Amino acid sequence: MQLGRFSIGTGDRFAHQAKAQLRACMLAAEAGVSVTPVWNKSNREHLIIGSEPESVRRAADAAVKSLGWTGEYFCDADHITLQTVDRFLPVCDFYTIDVAEAIGKPAAADDVNAFVARHTKLVGEIALMGTQEKFSITEATVRATAEKYLAAVQQAGRVYRHILAAKGAGNFLPEVSMDETDSAQTPVELLLILAAIADEGIPVRTIAPKFSGRFNKGVDYVGDVAGFEREFGLDVAAIAYAVEQFGLPGDLKLSVHSGSDKFSIYAAIHRTTARLDAGVHLKTAGTTWLEELIGLAEAGGDALALAKEMYAEAYAHKEELCAPYATVIDIDERKLPKPGEVAKWSSREYVAALRHVPGAAGYNSSLRQLLHVGFKIAAKMGGRYLELLEANEAIIARNVTENLFDRHIAPVFLGRAR
């Protein structure tokens, strides 16, 4: 199973947009770049919507068959743990093993000592390919990193072996995710984490560290873009070193996992992957649901009325909806329009407020973030919402494809400005 140099993880909350998403990857192929689609949906999202992992597989398989896609494609058991993985085993072939909650928990002292003893060759200066910089690593750094991350990597190993026992070698791809934690991993820490992953025997294909800066749901990156570019390049160099020294898979690559619309750093990612001849896995989960809302608003009539109702419900339940996402949203309640105001909006006004075009007149990042976490409202509407999706498929599909290709795939993988 080959993920390829470039891949994109894309969510589809209600399993109606797989064809539209796949069309975006087909547009990339027509432009000369292969981008592997990975459809992802977490256990939390399945629980909120009341769906099963099989629905993701059915939608992906149907899209591939309908459009005649001949490349690889995958279904991701997103953010799984040992407690949640079993329901995904029959249908998924990509597993995002999330061990963020175990970061900082102590590993056994003997295990830490053994790790330090096993990796004495890392102590000193390490020259990195593709960069003028060097890593300077002390034994104290190795020990401190093991004390912070070794238990998390050991947890990843337990989950990987559980999947392996069920699926068999070569039948799935593992990702290790450490992005949903308080502080970013340094490139040196990433290198040592990869050493621990190799010790666990995990043939990891993508790794999702936490990068510096703020990665919120549905809106742009906030942080030092130049600093991110340097950090990203050092992480790529650390991966190249780890592949060579630790025997990890040759196609191992970074996963830019956190947030949704990381537009400000896309040019930096493209420059770095081009300069270092590296791959990248980009996750955009969550934005498809917003493109459905945009399509409904554009359609007008009953569809626009439902989009307005969706906002009114989200506004009325904003505390409940935002609580699980408090660390990855920054909503200024003063900038949220009252539902009565939104009820008077034209189709054009609703779309302008929700569509993520930074700097555009009417764009409202607080409204966008609230609706981003408000998919539970649509789930409660059930058939009423799904029927309007189907009735307005053409306009919604156009928005989904254009968003995924123009705003994500083109700038990251083709180097085209938005």
Describe the structure.
The chain is of the alpha/beta class and 418 residues long. The protein folds into 2 domains: 6-287 and 403-414, Aldolase class I (TIM Barrel, Alpha-Beta Barrel), CATH 3.20.20; 290-402, no CATH class. It is 52% helix and 12% strand. The chain has 17 helices and 10 strands. An 8-stranded parallel beta barrel has the order 1-2-3-4-7-8-9-10, surrounded by 7 helices. A two-stranded antiparallel sheet has the order 5-6. α7 links the parallel β8 (206-208) and β9 (253-256). The longest helix is centred in the middle third of the chain and has 29 residues, at 139-167. It is globular. The two termini are 32 Å apart.
Brief overview:
By secondary structure, this protein is α/β, with parallel strands linked by helices.
**Quaternary class:** single chain
Q: CATH class of the largest domain, please?
A: Alpha Beta
Order of helices and strands: EHEHHEEHEEHEHEHEHEHHHHHHHHH
Query: Domains counted in the coordinates: how many?
Result: 2
Going across the biggest sheet, name each strand in turn.
Answer: 1-2-3-4-7-8-9-10
Distance between the termini: 32 Å
The whole-angstrom Rg is 21 Å
CATH homologous superfamily assignment of the largest domain: Aldolase class I
Find the structural class using helix and strand composition.
alpha/beta
Estimated share of beta-strand residues: 5-15%
Low-confidence stretches: none
Indicate the CATH topology of the largest domain: TIM Barrel
Average per-residue pLDDT, rounded, comes to 96
Helix content: 40-55%
Distinct helical segment count = 17
